[in-house]
């Protein structure tokens, strides 16, 4: 059990470092006057500050809204940390670690910038996806893998 906790927290730290490093590179580029980078015809690196929740929903322009979102994020991160502490297998440990690392990266942004730094910009066939970051990838991928683990991989007790 202890090894699962350590393993999960290592994943959290890895995602946090990847998030910090990627945002540092992007912010440095744009601080030096850099412009948006077209990586492929459907992928750009841009700079956006998301003052809302996921995918720009529930935009928080007032300081009260920022503090409210920050408070909710801290509470949810504490819950994820608790679930990580109670992880039953390696998959759950990795998933909760990814989610926690991503959440902490976005909390850091809200504290420092008052918004989450987003820069990954995908678009194709007239459809433009919401701009996101590495922390968001950790949260979403961790949640999807956790759902797969809970539905398909974790052994269920016999209810009969």
UniProtKB/TrEMBL annotation:
<feature type="transmembrane region" description="Helical">
    <location>
        <begin position="66"/>
        <end position="84"/>
    </location>
</feature>
<keyword id="KW-0645">Protease</keyword>
<feature type="transmembrane region" description="Helical">
    <location>
        <begin position="91"/>
        <end position="108"/>
    </location>
</feature>
<feature type="transmembrane region" description="Helical">
    <location>
        <begin position="6"/>
        <end position="30"/>
    </location>
</feature>
<protein>
    <recommendedName>
        <fullName>Lipoprotein signal peptidase</fullName>
        <ecNumber>3.4.23.36</ecNumber>
    </recommendedName>
</protein>
<dbReference type="GO" id="GO:0005886">
    <property type="term" value="C:plasma membrane"/>
</dbReference>
<keyword id="KW-0812">Transmembrane</keyword>
<feature type="active site">
    <location>
        <position position="118"/>
    </location>
</feature>
<keyword id="KW-0378">Hydrolase</keyword>
<keyword id="KW-1133">Transmembrane helix</keyword>
<comment type="pathway">
    <text>Protein modification; lipoprotein biosynthesis (signal peptide cleavage).</text>
</comment>
<dbReference type="Pfam" id="PF01252">
    <property type="entry name" value="Peptidase_A8"/>
</dbReference>
<comment type="similarity">
    <text>Belongs to the peptidase A8 family.</text>
</comment>
<feature type="active site">
    <location>
        <position position="136"/>
    </location>
</feature>
<dbReference type="GO" id="GO:0004190">
    <property type="term" value="F:aspartic-type endopeptidase activity"/>
</dbReference>
<comment type="function">
    <text>This protein specifically catalyzes the removal of signal peptides from prolipoproteins.</text>
</comment>
<feature type="transmembrane region" description="Helical">
    <location>
        <begin position="128"/>
        <end position="153"/>
    </location>
</feature>
<dbReference type="InterPro" id="IPR001872">
    <property type="entry name" value="Peptidase_A8"/>
</dbReference>
<keyword id="KW-0472">Membrane</keyword>
<dbReference type="GO" id="GO:0006508">
    <property type="term" value="P:proteolysis"/>
</dbReference>
<keyword id="KW-1003">Cell membrane</keyword>
<keyword id="KW-0064">Aspartyl protease</keyword>
